[in-house]
Design brief:
The protein is α+β, with helices and mostly antiparallel strands. Helix content is about 55%, strand content about 20%. The chain has helices at about 1-20, 40-55, 55-185, 200-215, 220-225, 260-270, 380, 385-420; strands spanning about 25, 30-35, 235-240, 245-260, 285, 295-305, 310-325, 325-340, 345-355, 365-375. This is BZIP domain-containing protein.
């Protein structure tokens, strides 16, 4: 502010100095008045002055008039020049004042922004402590979930290892049986049906242990194949051929509605599951645990070829039922060994069947999954005709069992109708 006042005083003093019309120059015999704002050079001024001295006597009156006119013109020019100069100074001063205002406003905005930034940083620092607690809770929950998942995976691994060990032991026992049969086959003069008794205890116990393992997987198996989304009148049959070339796998999925009461259906189902119509060389295994809910039996299935030759295969069936108030689960294993011309041909079948009261209609809902693997040794695989005949007998045997089962259900339907039972 002091600098502004000093500048104004300087401008006023300069204006007063310039208001003086002439500048007196000394050093000559008389004074010469020179207009500082005149555009004429000093030499011309002095020349005119000399001429005026020489002619002073004759034209003093004319010189006085001319000098007055020149002074008037010079004064007007100087006044105009001072006006322009003052205006320029005012414009510069106003521009500087505007710049000061702009800079002041910019400074205020910068200070305000700094205050707001500091406030946000303080709020962020306060909220960080709360967020840390939330993050700790989330990480703790995630860690607990991971730990539980690890425990479940370890339990599943132990269960699978136990099942694999049981399978390995079963394979070893079957190998021993096969080797013994091959040796006796080579020593016999006439081919006869093999009557060698395998280690039934080991085989049956391995199968029974596998049944419990398969029962624990029933929900997983049905969920993988989307059985719950199937219609109650649908059947799905899939055949796969692995790259090994000597194993054929069949996958059969069936879901249907049975028009019978739930309890009656469970009872007739368990009765028919014993396959009482298979009586050829039938032998029961009576040392199984929980005999009321377990089936362990072996029998022979025979057939006559087109040439009149009799062929047969040995079958071992192990099954168990798991009963709950609202469900009946039947799990089975069926192992088939070819005999005679079918030597070296085997079939391994695993099955799951679940009965439950229907929620949509009156009756019982049945869900069934059957997985069958045909396993032939390479020597048996070379006999294409025998292999095809083996598959045909397996298919006929399955169809016969299904026919007996349907006849039993029809008999149940007839009995209920005669007794007047309602569905």
């Amino acid at each position: 502010m002091t600098d502004s006042i000093t500048g104004d005083v300087f401008i006023d003093e300069l204006a007063m100095f310039l208001d003086s019309d002439t500048l007196m120059l000394s050093g000559v015999e008389h004074s010469i008045e020179v207009d500082l704002s005149s555009d004429l050079p000093l030499g011309m001024m002095f020349a005119s002055e000399s001429r005026s001295d020489n002619q002073s006597g004759s034209s003093s009156c004319n010189d006085n008039g001319h000098e007055t006119a020149v002074k008037t013109i010079l004064r007007e020019k100087e006044t105009k020049r001072r006006r322009v100069y003052r205006q320029k100074q005012k414009d510069e001063r106003n521009a500087l004042l505007c710049q000061v205002q702009d800079l002041t406003l910019t400074l205020e905005k910068a200070k305000q922004a700094e205050l707001e930034r500091n406030a946000r940083q303080e709020e962020a620092s306060k909220s960080t402590s709360g967020d840390d607690n939330v993050c700790v809770g989330k990480w703790k929950t995630l860690a607990v979930w991971e730990w539980e998942s690890l425990c479940r995976a370890q339990d599943e691994q132990k269960r699978l290892q136990a099942a694999a060990s049981a399978k390995a032991q079963l394979i070893k026992d079957l190998q021993k049986v096969i080797y013994k049969r091959i040796e006796r086959k080579s020593l016999a003069s006439n081919p006869k049906l093999s009557t060698t008794r395998p280690s039934d205890v080991v085989v049956y116990e391995a199968y029974l242990q596998e049944l419990d393992t398969n029962y624990a997987r029933i929900d997983e198996m049905f969920r993988t194949l989307a059985v719950s989304t199937m219609k109650e009148t649908s059947t799905n049959l899939t055949r796969t051929n692995p790259t090994a070339g000597c194993t054929k796998e069949f996958l059969h999925v069936n879901k249907r509605l049975l028009p019978f009461q739930f309890l009656s259906t469970c009872q007739i189902f368990w009765k028919l599951a014993r396959l009482e119509h298979r009586q050829l060389d039938r032998e029961l295994y009576g040392d199984a645990k929980d005999p009321e809910n377990t089936i362990a039996v072996k029998f022979r299935v025979s057939s006559v070829t087109n040439t009149g030759a009799t062929v047969s295969m040995r079958q071992r069936l192990v099954a168990r039922r798991y009963v709950k108030p609202d469900s009946f689960v039947y799990v089975w294993k069926l192992f088939v060994e070819g005999e005679g011309i079918f030597q070296g041909m085997h079939s391994d079948e695993s099955g799951w069947c679940r009965l439950s009261p229907s929620t949509s209609q009156v009756g019982t809902s049945m869900e069934m999954l059957v997985r069958r693997s045909l396993m032939h040794y390479r020597s048996a695989e070379r006999s294409g005709q025998a292999t095809s005949h083996f598959d045909d007998i397996m298919r006929d045997s399955t169809n016969e069992d299904q026919k007996i089962f349907m006849q039993g259900l029809d008999q149940l339907l007839l009995d209920n109708a005669l007794n007047g039972d309602s569905w």
